[in-house]
Specification:
Blueprint lengths: L12 H7 L1 H12 L4 H32 L3 H7 L1 H9 L7 H17 L3 E9 L2 E8 L7 H16 L5 E4 L18 H5 L2 E8 L11 E6 L2 E8 L2 E6 L13 E3 L2 E3 L6 E3 L5 E2 L8 E2 L1 E4 L2 E9 L2
Parallel strand pairs: 2-3
Antiparallel strand pairs: 1-2, 4-14, 5-6, 6-7, 7-12, 8-9, 9-10, 10-11, 13-14
């Protein structure tokens, strides 16, 4: 349910600082509005001039570097911060299809935790076409995976795309293309929607086999680490409807201390012996920080 590894609390701190520079620039631009429309326009023009200047410099550096050593393209693309800046200036050494394929490789461990996989069918006219295989097509967590993990990764790798289409496998009974806005239809119908990603750096401190409780805006969450994977679920036992506080982890089975019900955390919280199904909370590393997408009740 999470990427293969999560960094320590101090790892990638500098990268995270620069990845959020865009938000700080936007905040400063909004603050300039207090000086009136003319002040805001001048501030935006200044940002564009500086961006264009550094873009021209980056292009010349890329031309020189790749002419000397074409293998540097792989190193540039592997560095998230460098790659993101190259994307901003349209200088990324890889085409959109290769970038999307690499992004899907990064989220495959998350899909695998739900027993599924994804195939890139192609990219044409700004539309990415995907096909999912395995149990993730039908389990309640699949919509979460599609909407939050796959789309987040694909759009980060290829911000120029206009749409993502999910094509049913040939063996599926359904027909047609699933529009991105309908991916969470079943989850929404159950009375939930998903908020923005919430940073949870404490997740990186969990040791193998450890279980911890975390409070994020409006929701209590139980998280645990199984090997390299950190998995999180809403703090509610579907069997006894009580809290999972004090739950113990044996292998990949989380057992409620109140009623003894067990849940396979490595398989989207599926109940062991018909004990119901935990409600998963997506966990991804964003901007170098472990983060959770938290559900809230829809009024």
């Amino acid at each position: 349910m999470a990427p293969p590894t999560l960094p320590g609390p101090d790892e990638n701190q500098d990268d995270a600082q620069w990845r959020t520079a865009g938000e700080r620039i936007q905040t400063l631009l909004e603050a300039s509005s207090s000086g009136g429309a003319i002040a805001r326009e001048r501030a935006e023009k200044l940002v564009r001039e500086v961006t264009d200047l550094y873009g021209a410099m980056l292009q010349r550096m890329m031309d020189v570097a790749l002419a000397e050593d074409p293998g540097l393209a792989d190193r540039f693309a592997a560095d998230d911060l460098v790659a993101s800046l190259l994307l901003v200036h349209g200088l990324h050494p890889y085409d959109v299809e290769r970038r999307v394929a690499a992004a899907l490789d990064n989220v495959r461990p998350y899909l695998g935790s739900h027993g599924g996989d994804v195939t890139l069918l192609g990219v044409a006219d700004g539309v990415v076409r995907l096909q999912f295989q395995g149990s993730c097509k039908s389990c309640p967590s699949s919509s979460i995976t599609l909407e939050l993990a796959v789309e987040d990764a694909v759009r980060a790798a290829a911000p120029e795309i206009s749409d993502i289409e999910v094509v049913p496998a040939e063996s599926d009974s359904g027909a047609g293309v699933i529009a991105p806005e309908s991916l969470l239809t079943r989850v929404h119908a159950n009375g939930h929607h998903w908020t923005a990603w919430q940073p949870a750096p404490e997740l990186a401190e969990l040791g193998d086999g450890e279980v911890g409780g975390f409070r994020v805006p409006g929701v209590m969450v139980v998280a645990c680490r199984v090997g390299d994977d950190v998995l999180a679920y809403r703090d509610r036992c579907p069997s006894c409807t009580g809290t999972l506080a004090g739950a113990l982890l044996s292998g990949a089975v989380l057992r409620c201390q109140n009623c003894g019900a067990g849940f396979d955390v490595a398989r989207a919280g599926a109940g062991v012996g018909g004990d119901g199904h935990l409600e998963p909370i997506p966990v991804l590393v964003r901007d170098g920080v472990p983060s959770m997408a938290v559900p809230q009740e829809v009024a």
